[in-house]
Amino acid sequence: MTKDLNTDPIWYPFTQMKLAAPPIHIERAKDCTLYGKDGKEYIDAVSSWWVNIHGHSNEIIAKRIAEQALKMEHIIFAGFTHSPAIDFAKKLIAILPENITKVFFSDNGSTAVEVALKMALQFWYNQGDKKKTKIIAFENAYHGDTFGAMSVGAKSTFNAAFEGHLFQVDYLPTPNFENIEIVKNQLVELVKHQDVAAFIFEPLVQGAGGMLMHEAQHLDQLIQIAKQNNVICIADEVMTGFGRTGKNFAINHLQNQPDIVCLSKGITGGFMPLGVTVCAQPIFDAFYSNNKAKTFFHGHSYTANPLSCAAAIASLEILLSEECQLNIHKIAQSHSQFGETIKGEPFVKTLRQQGTILAIELNTEEDSSYFNTIRDDVYEFCLNEGVLLRPLGNTIYIMSPYCIKSEELKKVYAVIEKVIEKFKTKHKE
């Protein structure tokens, strides 16, 4: 049932306000459960847009924020610094690949990508190489909603209104066992003129593209070609970072490491907005100069907010704990076992898993797409069953908090099985 939301003072994201049902009013949340004002409860099986990696209202993170708020809530981060930012930067670098040495703070995933693109383009500009301006990305990519991020994302309905304002990007098919040689040859052809500044990719999992997945060995080969041709490699780990792929970062599955990495989403455990763009020393060195014109002119009012940094430190400590690492392993194992029970279903077109991420692509009469009409029906059905699953078109995915209990996971699986049973008459014959 829909209701006219024209009188609502809030304009909600990714929502056609004229067609949408009234938003569900949540009064409180704890661990994996959202508690509605109407008394209904929902298992948050998508970590509220992938950010609440430790569940809701985590006491450890909340306490750290409260303690920090009584010391200092915020200061300007140009010409000044503070311990939460310093401590978090050191702790983060310690678990990233050894080539990463610098941390640049921002406040969200799209901005972390904007920073990375600007770093890469200005890297060449500062060295007098005005020719290296082209960017390469994957088809079906999604890197955010700001203009640079939209430019390197797939061209679609999401950014059609702005297409004339976006810079040109060359796209590669996502590699797989069948096309890897073709994709490698395409990359070789694109970089041979030495005018490519950067290659940006979502390592192993393309989230908003439909939880599409590719092999580390194939991405490794593309990174190697890029590096051999002086192309800066940017890993967008906004979604895959902080344990989602079974390791701390998706790039931990790779042999060849990127030069720049974008991080956000789960960085503070869902408590505070924060983004960081980390980079290798040679990137920083191109800006380190007596010439003020080579400065990296980028910043935000809330850069390295102390409350956000305090939350990020606490979230990182929880992530690295033995309990959390064991939970990540258990979730991945549980997903694998559940996948085995449904993969023979005709209504299940494909199953994809990487660590704690499980994607189930439904075999509908329509092509696989974000706008597949089954999406809204499945979404509403799952909510009525007490589970928040937000399908990407005809692809249902699970990306729960790491603290999810086995009985909660079983309920999520049971609801997905009900979806398959209820909607299977729509599958292709």
How many structural domains?
A: 2
Q: Give the DSSP E fraction (strand runs of 2 or more residues).
A: 15-25%
Give the strand order of the largest sheet, numbering strands 1, 2, ... along the chain.
Answer: 4-12-11-10-7-5-6
Instruction: Predict the CATH topology of the largest domain.
Output: Aspartate Aminotransferase, domain 2
Could you name the CATH class of the largest domain? Alpha Beta
Low-pLDDT residue spans: none
Helix content: 25-40%
Please describe the biggest sheet, giving its number of strands, its sense, and whether it closes into a barrel: 7 strands, mixed
What does this structure look like?
This protein is an alpha/beta fold and 429 residues long. The protein folds into 2 domains: 60-319, Type I PLP-dependent aspartate aminotransferase-like (Major domain) (Aspartate Aminotransferase, domain 2, 3-Layer(aba) Sandwich), CATH 3.40.640.10; 322-426, Aspartate Aminotransferase, domain 1. The protein is 34% helix and 17% strand. The chain is built from 12 helices and 16 strands. A 7-stranded mixed β-sheet has the order 4-12-11-10-7-5-6, with helices on both faces. Strands 1-2-3-15 form a 4-stranded mixed β-sheet. It has a 3-stranded antiparallel β-sheet with strand order 13-14-16, covered by helices on one side. α2 (59-71) packs antiparallel against α9 and α10 packs parallel to α12. It is globular and about 65 Å long. The relative contact order is 0.15. The mean pLDDT is 96.
